[in-house]
Amino acid sequence: MSTPAAKTAITPRRDEDFPEWYQQVVRAAEMAEPSDVRGCMVIRPWGYGIWENMQRQLDAMFKATGHRNAYFPLFIPLSYFAREAAHVEGFAKECAVVTHSRLEVNAEGKMVPGSPLSEPLVVRPTSETIIGASYAKWVQSYRDLPVLINQWANVVRWEMRPRVFLRTTEFLWQEGHTVHETEAEARAETRQMLDVYEEFVRDHLAIPVFSGEKSESERFPGAVQTLCIEAMVQDRKAIQAGTSHFLGQNFSRASGIQFQSRAGTQEFGWTTSWGMSTRLIGTVIMAHADDDGLVLPPRIAPIHIVILPITPKEETRTRVLEAAAKLAGELRALMYFGAPLDVEIDQRELGGGLKNWEWIKKGVPLRVELGPRDLESGNVAVSRRDQPVKAKEFVPAAEFAGRAVELLDSIQQNLFERAKQFRDAHTRTIDTKEEFYDFFTPKNPAKPEIHGGFVRAHWNGSREVEEQIKSDLKVTIRCIPFDDPATPPEAGICPFSGEASPRRVVWAKAY
Amino acid sequence: MSTPAAKTAITPRRDEDFPEWYQQVVRAAEMAEPSDVRGCMVIRPWGYGIWENMQRQLDAMFKATGHRNAYFPLFIPLSYFAREAAHVEGFAKECAVVTHSRLEVNAEGKMVPGSPLSEPLVVRPTSETIIGASYAKWVQSYRDLPVLINQWANVVRWEMRPRVFLRTTEFLWQEGHTVHETEAEARAETRQMLDVYEEFVRDHLAIPVFSGEKSESERFPGAVQTLCIEAMVQDRKAIQAGTSHFLGQNFSRASGIQFQSRAGTQEFGWTTSWGMSTRLIGTVIMAHADDDGLVLPPRIAPIHIVILPITPKEETRTRVLEAAAKLAGELRALMYFGAPLDVEIDQRELGGGLKNWEWIKKGVPLRVELGPRDLESGNVAVSRRDQPVKAKEFVPAAEFAGRAVELLDSIQQNLFERAKQFRDAHTRTIDTKEEFYDFFTPKNPAKPEIHGGFVRAHWNGSREVEEQIKSDLKVTIRCIPFDDPATPPEAGICPFSGEASPRRVVWAKAY
Q1: Residues A398-423: pLDDT tens digits?
Q2: How many domains does chain B have?
Q3: At what angle do helices B45-64 and B279-288 cross, to 10 degrees?
Q4: What is the DSSP string of A212-274?
Q5: How far apart are CA A511 and CA A234, in angstroms?
Q6: Band of residue B484 on the pLDDT scale cut at 50, 70, 90
Q7: Domain housing A458
Q8: Do residues B249 and B284 share a domain?
Q9: Domain boundary at A351, A378, A408, which?
Q10: B73, A35: Cβ pair inside 8 Å?
């Protein structure tokens, strides 16, 4: 970013206009696009391929912790949805409502909605209430517990300011819904699933997070406690990457999930829910992409290695293509986290530069060029997407397959380290209101530069302070971090109220 | 079925009341249940586990034929949906319509739909029109073709007479949507995907099918040609198990999918679509289940082998459980069609008989009992779900893992052979109207027994004949079979009209 004149594949650069840069990265990688249905996106194959990898890997983690998948109805009768007061209030403004069950032609020959339904149906924005209705039937005794179920589904939350992947009216997600015999078990489940999310985001998406609890004002509607993981992206804002809710007995009371206890009494179940969505794809882009486009953590890349045969002359063409096929065969025989390496040979009749740039913009971790000169030298030219675009390392062709997985691991690790360094560099401990306000205020209001970051500051626990700061700066408490044996919470003074504070909390502007 | 007094796990038996037997098999296996949302089902973990296996295996076949997955919006603007006249007419009666974007509290304090949308949205019953809008943007030149995309999604078709898996308002499916440069390519794709379906249903679900073309009256609304595969289930009715549509240029004209041809002219693309749904789960149940419950083809079973430790005495308990764990470890190390064998040890504190019956009703292919006496004899007692429930084979414990995959293959093969024998036994070639009507008429109208089957009969090609027979017998043409080099179509006389017929077609009552 120090040489403003350097040509980059994405215009504008991150430091020129971050929101527009984001849109251009998504477009250049052909990941997704807005649809004509307001707020809904089309996820194109490259974006969906990333989601498939995320799904497969997360799903394996859910199953390893004893969960199974199921599927519940898309539609929620309005009366069910209204059973939990805070819940319906929290989602009312975002609900899409089905009111008719057919189309018909009216007197003017126009196609219009036909038969009104006796009860309107809400398109699920989340499924606590509809799943609760099933659980109420399934759970009769403590012997039926725990219920440990996850659902992969689409959900709809009407969005006035849509942004592809980050805020869309329809999005894809998973939602876990569990019922437990005791409060302690449900709280342990809530935490366990947050830990699964943290591990997934750290080890698979190469993004470090802060994890902790939400303040009351940021809780899921109807929850007793919401846990979350918060990532920092390259404009130094926070993105909530996953949440896990301890719902107490609120939803089991609303849905009638009751069981006979070991003591023979009738008790309400203790429930949890937890979710991650296609928003994670937006998080990956904002965390890792650069001014030349997407940069993918190898573990979720739809293609790990692209081979670019260089065939300038007809007489060497066959030999080059044969060598490329041989190399691809060696690579595809390798396993990478339980699945064979995905390798593409790009043989399209296009300029080599054009092809190379296409894969750069798609963020493929390793590009391998192979031409007639390489055949003679016995080398291949390897470019890592986490290194400058022009950088190449020449590796003996016979050795490349043996080093491929190690190279991918090194990219994965490097992306994580880079993201962690970035986050740590923009995380501050602040003790005065003045410094806090200064940190979150752009220096040039006419064209706000990237500024701010995460702040660890004391807080007296009051909602008034939160609201004041949100109104002044658009800054919110991202989480009250978990106790850390290495840095136990220290008491102090809330710089906004002058009152006592039991611990520092993490503040940031957020998506 | 010859000893009416024999006790079975499912009441009623198939021959007593087939529709009720079906519901009871679904319930006893805990596969799915109706929800309180009219026509929508809840797919429970056992049913969803079967769907996950079907998905994974079909998805691999789609990818092997060059398709990639993507995701398009759930909602279709009414104006898009109405672009193809036959299409909207075909689906109008089944559409769920979203008309409002929020909930609000009315003057009486009741929660009601809030803001009306400027244009109603149809919840997709199928996605030709919404996907067509994207393809119109993506396709500019012949170089952009073919577009080969599949989507896994939920769809909604309002259903007045719902039946779990077979007819539900919401169901899960995949829908492939492709665009091609030429008519010949699109027709080849349509056939290729039908062949994929036939292979999947035959080799994975162990069900033989007739494949061919639909008559005009049974075509997909808007299609030029609909190909299908038709299975026979145990009440001798037909189930359409998958369809593949050649759409000609109808939908590309409606959506504006145009491209510059090699000759420089502007042409409309040739499109196809093809789909399979959770209805297949209902087909598997009706094809293979028996009077003791579900019978699963091993390739799609969520659990291949259940080990039932018998621990009557405390002193032998530990040794039995250790032996069970050792056996499970050996089995889980085995691969079965690209994934490790799924093995469960059922250690629940329940009566052995109760547990055994639970797994019988769930249709697990192999049950292995292991108790103190087996430890002494060095054997395990193996029961195959395709054999009578009480049948056991004693296999040396040390040899069982070595034979497990072979046993599963044998069950898979046996289920196919059984289904094929059943179908062939109930498929007739008929040449007179009288015999045709007799074949499809129950002998006891008060309590219609299972009757009929598939009939190969001549047809003059007229819609009037189809309508008469449908109205008289509820029998329809399931398909006009493809040309078979072994049995080339022979011309003859249509027994209903006395007119010439170019070939026999397949008739049946259908779900």
Answers
A1: 999 999 999 999 999 999 999 999 99
A2: 3
A3: 110
A4: EE--GGGS-TT-SEEEEEEEE-TTS-EEEEEEEEE-TTHHHHHHT-EEE-TTS-EEEPEEEEE
A5: 12
A6: confident
A7: 427-509
A8: yes
A9: A408
A10: yes
Same domain, B50 and B188: yes
Task: Report the predicted TM-score, pTM, of the whole model to 2 decimal places.
Answer: 0.96
Residues B492, B392 share a domain: no
- Report CB contact under 8 Å: B75, A114: no
Q: Name every chain A residue with its beta carbon within 8 A of the beta carbon of B136.
A: none
Q: Which residues of A fall within a CB distance of 8 Å from B137?
A: 33
Residue A117 lies in a domain: no
CB contact, 8 Å: A147 with chain B? no
Q: Which of B380, B413, B446 marks a domain boundary?
A: B413
Contacts of B4 by beta carbon, 8 Å cutoff, 6+ apart: none
Question: Is A413 contained in some domain?
Answer: no
Give the whole-angstrom CA distance, residue B103 versus residue B110: 10
Report pLDDT digits (tens) over B128-171.
999 999 999 999 999 999 999 999 999 999 998 999 999 999 99
CA dihedral B362, B367, B372, B376 (to 10 degrees): 180
pLDDT at A471: 98
Distance CA B223, CA B84 (A): 10
Pairing of strands A305-309, A366-370: parallel
Contact call for residues A97 and B103 (beta carbons, < 8 A): yes
CATH number for position B329? 3.40.50.800
Same domain, A182 and A273: yes
Give the three-state DSSP class for A179: strand
Is there a single domain that holds both residue A447 and residue A327?
Answer: no
Same domain? A402 vs A469? no
**Do residue A283 and residue A328 come from a single domain?**
no
B167 part of a folded domain: yes
Q: Which residues from B are below 8 Å from A104, CB to CB?
A: 92
Angle at B347 between CA B344 and CA B352, to 5 degrees: 105
Check residue A370 and report its DSSP letter: E
pLDDT > 50? residue B417: yes
* pLDDT the model gives residue A483: 83
Q: What is the CATH number of the domain that holds B27?
A: 3.30.930.10
pLDDT at B103: 94
Answer yes or no: is A419 within a domain.
no
What ipTM, to 2 d.p.? Answer: 0.96
Out of B88, B121, B158, whose CB is closest to A37? B121
For chain A, residues with pLDDT lower than 50 are 1-4
Check A37 against B114: CB less than 8 A apart. no
Q: How far apart are CA A395 and CA A305, in angstroms?
A: 15
Write the CATH number for A443: 3.30.110.30
**Closest partner CB to B73 (pick from A40, A45, A149):** A40
The count of C-alpha atoms lying within 13 angstroms of the C-alpha of A424, restricted to the half-sphere facing its C-beta, is 7
- CB spacing of A33 vs B134 below 8 angstroms: yes
